[in-house]
Structure formats: structure tokens, C-alpha cells
Amino acid sequence: MPITEILDRNCKLYxxxxxxxxxxxxxxxxxxxxxxxxxxxxxNPTTHYRREITWNVFEEKxxxxxxxxxxxxxxxxxxxAILLMNCLEWLPIYFGxxxxxxxxxxxxxxxxxxxxxxxxxxxxxxxxxxGPEFIGRxxxxxxxxxxxxxxxxxxxxxxxxAESYSELTANASSQSPQIHLTDDDEAAIYFSSGTTGFPKxxxxxxxxxxxxxxxxxxxxxxxxxxxxxCIPPLYHTGAKMHWFxxxxxxxxxxxxxxxxxxxxxxxxxxxxxxxxxxxxxxxxDILDAIDSGEVNLDDYELDQWRLMHIGAQPVPPSxxxxxxxxxxxxxxxxxxxxxxxxxxxxxxxxxxNIHKVGAxxxxxxxxxxxxxxxxxNDVPKGEVGELAVKGPGVxxxxxxxxxxxxxxxxxxxxxxxDMAQEDEDGFIYLVDRKKDVVISGGENIxxxxxxxxxxxxxxxxxxxxxxxxxxxxxxxxxxxxxVKDGYSLTEDExxxxxxxxxxxxxxxxxxxxxxxxxxxxxIEKPKLRxxxxxxxxxxxxxxxxxxx
Length: 548
Fold this sequence. Notes:
By secondary structure, the chain is an alpha/beta fold. It has 15 helices and 29 strands.
């Protein structure tokens, strides 16, 4: 069953029920007030921008977009990229693409212009759908990328180099395009990357997407009455695949723009949310705000909130212990996964196993796990090896990268690159990562990209970027810089130079020192981590609970 059939079913069963709500605290609603003979529009500080749609409207919007795409020549196997911030249009556009038989290609909203162009070319994208936040970045490359693809703009004041989404879909048919789809049809391309710089394109079929729906509902028991608060970006498999549990149950979800404690708690209270997925920084901020008195829990209605789960980065057990003291009635859970395994859930802790906080859990619903040595033979229980997973959610391949695919796929097993060990009860613990990806606040940061940029500075002889522990973000980046003989360089000069990078890629710490390399010329990053992280990193790794 392709995932589009779940949307069709919800429309038939729950058509008039609200399915999606969008809340943006940064935009205040307006109200009309009359003063003498004048009618004025002024901000209302007590309310926030809020929109909602029903399952019927969701289906109608998806069908209109699908039929418009077909009228512009899109067919089965074509690719349509989505570059949008979370909004009510995001998911109907995603499903509209799938209804044509084309592949949806979500793009990270942090990508710089060159990364956007690279991903569009790698995935053979035919159409780019983008929002107002990306006008500048898309305009930089518009002349090049529009030579062989269409550009559709979602929002008001459409730029001259694109076509208006609202105008294009206004007169399109709201009926299903009736394109025959199967589980074996290709559905989506997501992007990921290790330490090699630009992302790899990850190809998934409909069976992967449907399995992620089943995994999420099996793990967290979503019902029609549950309301899911979605804060992370929908381009990420984690956010969308957690929402897939709501899709399967026919439940409502709230898309919230904003991560401040009061904003999150206000949304949970007013929208009566029952399930909330947080990142470590957001959970820490909520607890800190409560401890400082900034937030008074008596101001909110939170009794309905039954489940808090965390993913996308290492989770300190001490944080969960602290959370349970404040919210003793909450169930807690975590899931481990990769974009290559269609997001969270291939390994799953389970709400009943909170006594095992620190572990990532056991094989998730429909999944198998192994821990193997360098020859991919199973290691004895308790020994460290590479974690491998197998199940219906494993990717088909890295698109246009046969060599990289062969490195990680073998007989249906996906070799994750994460080092792990299994305890006597069968629970899996991550102990290290083969890859040098830095996970900061749930975002993957790729050191090679930063290193390559820094090496363009004439005063820099060598550079290595590593992750160092951070209480709030899990990890932050540190750049170890070796300066060329005869040159001088200060921390302020490096920081000024890095202003050319997107903010999230700028190193948080600058260290001037020699770069150790092994006899084959590779940077010895484990040695650097030991030098500059010391025992704090070892302790953090022992507490790791990761859900990419």
C-alpha cells in the first residue's frame, strides 16, 4: 500500500476533522477596532498567527498540486524538491508530489546556495518549490538552475524568476489524479552525509514510508485522539516520520515555529497536545526556565500531555532524571535511526524501559540488529562493534553513487558506521561513531566542509574540526588551526573570516596548535578529541542515546 492511500482513507473517514495546525508566535494576528468613524487594524498581542486545515482540505490541496504538476509535464519517476520552512503547505505539497508518481526531494533549510544547486543536480530534480525565506539563496543560482528545471514560489510577492504556487494551483482539479502506485515504486530522496562534505542522496520506496508509519504508531501508540506537537523541520526524516504515526491514526498535529519554553508550553496547553518530541536543548531550556521562575507551570494546562520523547542527538540520562522529577507522570522514550533507515525507530528504547536510560534500546518494530567486527562477523555480547540494521525501511541505495552504496549495504543489512555494544539484557548502547559528524542541537555538521573553507585562508597551514561536549547542544565545533610559518593569526581574525560561512557552520571554539597526522597522512581526530575533550567526552559517550 503506497502512503498516499493512508491520506485517501483519512479523508473518507475523518474528512471534516482538523488534521494540521500551524502556529507562528513571531507573527501576531490582527483585530479590527472602531474608533469614531475610523476602522483601524492594530496588532493583538494576546494571540499568535494560527492556521488550520481539515483532512478534506489537505487532500484537496494535494490533488490540486498533483494535477498542476502533471499539467506541467511531471510524470512517474520525475523529482520535485521542497525548500520550505514548516508551514501548512509543506505536507500537502509533499503528498501532491507522491500522488503524481514523482519523487519528493526535501531540502535542508540551512543549505547555502551552492549546496542547494549541488543537491538539485545530484537528485536530477525537475522542479524546485521554495518559500520566501529562500529568495536570496535561490536568486543567486536562479540563472543556472532554471535552465533545465521549473521554479515555483510559495508565498506572496512572487519573485520574477519563479512562478506563483497559489496562482498555478488555483484552477487545478481537486480530484485525485488516479496514478497507479505500488509499494515498490520510488517515493522520495532524502539527503545525508558523513564526513566527506556534500550530502549523499538517499533513495526510498513507498514501502519504506509506510513502514515508518507502522513503526511510529507501534512504538508510541498514537490514537485518533492524540495531538502531536511537531517543532523540528519537516525536511528531516525524524520530524516527518514521527508525524507519520499521527497520519496512520488520523490524529491532529500542530506545526510550531518557535522553541522558547513559554512558546512550547503555551502551544501544548492551548492546543491540548498529548505527544511532544523535543531536542535536548529545548528540554534543558524548559527545565531551566522552570527552575529560574521564568515559567510557572500553574499557568498552563498540561495534564493531557502523556509522552515526551527525545531524539537526534546524545541524551544525558541526568536530563531525563531531572525531567521525571518535574513531570513524574510523563512517559519517556527515544528512538535511534538514520535517514538511510527512513528516520527514527530501527532501534527503540520503549516507554516501559526507562530503567535502561542510556541505551538506545533493542530492534524496533519489524527491524533486526547486529553488532559486527571489521569483517562483518557478529561480535560476542558485550564487545564493541559496528551496529547494523535490517528491515523494510532500509534505503534502496545512494542515488548515483554505487560505490558508496556497496560500502554500507550488504544482503539487506545497513551498516550504520556507529560503534555499539549489547548488554546482558539485549539492550544496545552506542559507544562511539565511526563518522566524524558533529551533532549540534540535532543538526549534522560536516567537519570537512568547514576544514576546506578554513584552508582557503592564506595564513592557515592545516586545520581539523572536531566536536566537543556542550551541555545544551550536545556538541559544538572546535577548529584546531596550525598557522603557517611567517604568518600570524588571531582568534578574532578567524571568526571574522568565518562570517562567510552560514552561522551554524562557524566554529564555536578556535584552538591554535599543531595537527597530528598518521603515517598515511590522515588527521588523528581521536587523538585531538582526547587532547581537547579529555574525560568529559568519555563521560558524554557513556551517556549517549542517539536518534539521528
